[in-house]
Amino acid sequence: MIIRRPPDIRSSEITPKNVYVNRRKFIKNAAFGMAGVATVPAVLNTLESEEPQEIPARFRSMRSELNEPLNSYSDITTYNNFYEFGTQKDDPHRNSGDFRPAPWTVRIGGEVNKPGDYQLEDLLSPQRMEDRVYRLRCVEAWSMVIPWRGFPLADLIRRVEPTGNAKFVEFKTIVRPEEMPGQRAPILQWPYVEGLRMDEAMNPLTLMVTGLYGMDLPNQNGAPLRLIVPWKYGFKGVKSIVSIDFVENMPLNTWKQMQSNEYGFYANVNPEVSHPRWSQAREIRLPGLFKSHPTEMFNGYGDQVAHMYAGMDLSRWY
Ligand SMILES: Nc1nc2c(c(=O)[nH]1)N[C@H]1C(S)=C(S)[C@@H](COP(=O)(O)O)O[C@H]1N2
Ligand SMILES: [Mo]
Fold this sequence. Notes:
alpha+beta; seven-stranded mixed β-sheet; binds molybdenum atom
């Protein structure tokens, strides 16, 4: 199993569906009660919480390897960070309807023997898709448990054969202001950029994701192709990827470029290193309201990833 179950799983996490649904109603009402409080990160701005009919049955009783219940499809698709569609959590859900994730081309370049413009279908056709439940831990101290569908990034990397000069992988999101209203304003410098060190990119936990709940990614979650690195804060999970470059120098990722005192390149989930404006010791499990869960070092994956950072001062390399 990928993550060990910690000894302190609380029975309150094992919530029957009807209680869960009622709690969701309560939260929605609470959200109205708190209208005007602009930054209550715990409140899910859920519009409607009907789950799609097409969700395959195997997800009904699925839980994470930590025995955590999955967040609902509507939690996962209505509370998003995707600034290309706006900065509010429900903006990506509301504003991504015009986005066209097909046809899609990914440019692979830099220090690689097989560079080129790959049609998404060609990139995906040799890959074996897997469902993997990973918790997404946002640097804003909330988290969700999500059944992703994807394949190891390592498989793609082996196929395109990086040269010995490739030390990092750099990913970019598409720039399409006609379809992405957030990109019509200089909220961030577009395109959104993220990067991984080569060993992080090759780690078997690192996924290229094409879906969730067994269905294609909705636009707001980064259709048609995104990254998920489960031991890192959510912002490493760059969405709607159009280029993958193998480079010698550490890429300047978007959030570090914006505020390097707050966000670094590594972004490893670390309860001991506070964000300058808040603690990372605990997290809000959405759709909850309170920091009910202790944050785990490397989001629970230390036994599989800590060796990559041996000897590094993680308070300096945050
Ligand atoms: N292109 C792009 N990718 C992005 C972001 C973004 O604003 N733009 N936000 C990041 C952040 S901060 C988080 S927490 C995750 C959220 O992923 P989700 O909406 O699928 O939960 O996406 C990441 N990927
Ligand atoms: Mo985030």
